Amino acid sequence: MSKKTGKQTYQFGNPPKIISTGTVAGPLEGQGPLHEDFDEILTDARNNEKSFEKAERSMLTKACQLALNHASCSTDEVDLFLAGDLLNQIISANFTAATLGIPFLGLYGACSTAALGLSLGAMLLDGGFAETILTATSSHNCTAERQYRYPTEYGGQRRPYQQWTVTGAGAALLGYHGEGPKITGVTLGKVVDLGSKDPLNMGAAMAPAAADTILQHFQDTGWDPKAFDLIVTGDLGKVGIDLCRQELAENGLELGDNFSDCGLLIYDLNKQDVHAGGSGCAASALVTYGHLYKKLQRKELSRLLLVGTGALHSTTSFQQGENIPCIAHAVRIEV
Q: pTM to 2 decimals?
C-alpha cells in the first residue's frame, strides 16, 4: 500500500515517536530567549578544545549522548545513526559516528539537515527497516565563517541582511517505545535555484525553496494551515521569512501569526547583534529539539510543521561563480 500522498508527501501508517532529544548550545545562544530549554550551554566557544572544529565535534557527540541518556538507551540498542553538518565531508558527523559505533548514514542537507534526518528516520522506521534511530546535526559560528566566508579574526563588516551562524548541536532519538510526539508525515523538497549568488544573503536564497515545499505540502494533503499551532521554517531570518510569506501569498496561501522562523526565535534581535537572525544546522535543531519539543511535551503545541531550509552551495561552487541552489523539507509533528 502506497504511503505517498500527492507529488512529494509521505504519510505514515505507523508514525514513529520522537522519544527523546539532546541539545548543546553555544555561549551567545545561551544568552538568548530560549536558554532555559537547552540541556547544556557552553561558556567557551572552543569548549576546552584545541580548535573550533573539534569544539563542534564535541558538541555533536554530547548532544547524542544526552538524547540517549534521557531515554535510558545505550548505543547497542540503536539500529542507525543519521547525521550531518556543514563542514567539508560532514567531518563532525563522521567523527561522532566513529565515537558512537552505530551503523551510520551521513547526510548533507546544509541547514535543512535536522528536518532531513527526521524525514529519512521516520521513513526507515515506518518501513520496518529499523526500530530505533538516532539523528543529529551541528554547526558552529567560527567553523562556518572560516569555511564559507572569512576568518572571524578578520573583523569584516557584516551586512544588515546577513545572519549569524548558530553554535550548537541537537539530537533526537526516534522509535516506538516510551512517550513523545509523533512524526505523522513529511514532504521532501525539490532543489530550487532562482539565481541567487550572494553567500551572505542566505534568507533570500532559501525563501523560494521554503515557499515551494510549504505550498506542496498543503496541495498534497489538502490541510488548512490554520490546523497547525505553528508552521516554522529553519533559518530564513528577517529577510527570508518576509520574502517567503510574500511568495506564498502570491500563490494564494496566506499564513497568519502561526508562521515563524527558528532563526528569529533563537535570538533576541533587539538585544543581540545578530543582524537578520540565526542560520546554520543548529538553528532549527536547537529550537526544535529544545524549545518546541518541550512545548509539545507540555501539550502547549499539538501540531507543528517544521520546514527545514538549506543552501546547497559550497566554497568551490561559489569561487566558480555558480548560483546557490536551495532546498526545504517539511516534517509534520503531532501530539
A: 0.96
